[in-house]
Every structure is written in C-alpha cells, then in structure tokens.
C-alpha cells in the first residue's frame, strides 16, 4: 500500500488527513483516485508532491511502491 498524506486545504477537500491506495502508484493513478479538485490543483505549477520526503521536480515522474509515502502539498499562500 502507498500512504497518501493530505496537507493544508487538500486535507479539508479530501475530508481526511491521509489514506492508502494500492501499490504501485504513478501520476495518472494518483490523479484518478484523489478528489477531482485536488487532482486539478496538482496539475498546476504551484502544488507539489513529495515521495518519501523528497519533493519531486516532475510530478508526472511519480513512481510509488509498496510502503511509500506520498504527500500532497497545496500552494503556499502569504507573503
């Protein structure tokens, strides 16, 4: 299983802080399983994904295996 951690507004939108999906999990699989508005936000340039604590430069390169943790990082606001 792959542990998905929702942070910030993504946790609000998902209605939970985390959940698990079957491994392996790639970008398309993630986008299909999360809430549509989370997937839409992740497709933008301001939201990020980390895999096992490392922020991915290319979200579409996501390749999570059994036991991995994927954190969904919403855009940061403020100034």
Automatic annotation (TrEMBL):
Transmembrane domains' residue ranges: none
Record SUPFAM superfamilies: MoaD/ThiS
The protein's name: MoaD/ThiS family protein
Top-level taxon in the UniProt lineage: Bacteria
A Pfam family the protein falls into: ThiS
């Amino acid at each position: 299983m792959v542990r998905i951690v929702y942070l910030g507004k993504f946790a609000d939108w998902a209605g939970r802080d985390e959940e698990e999906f079957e491994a392996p999990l790639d970008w398309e699989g993630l986008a299909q399983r999360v809430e549509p508005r989370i997937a839409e936000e992740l497709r933008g340039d301001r939201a990020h994904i980390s895999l096992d604590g490392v922020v991915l430069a290319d979200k579409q390169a996501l390749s999570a295996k059994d036991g991995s943790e994927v954190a969904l990082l919403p855009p940061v606001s403020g100034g």
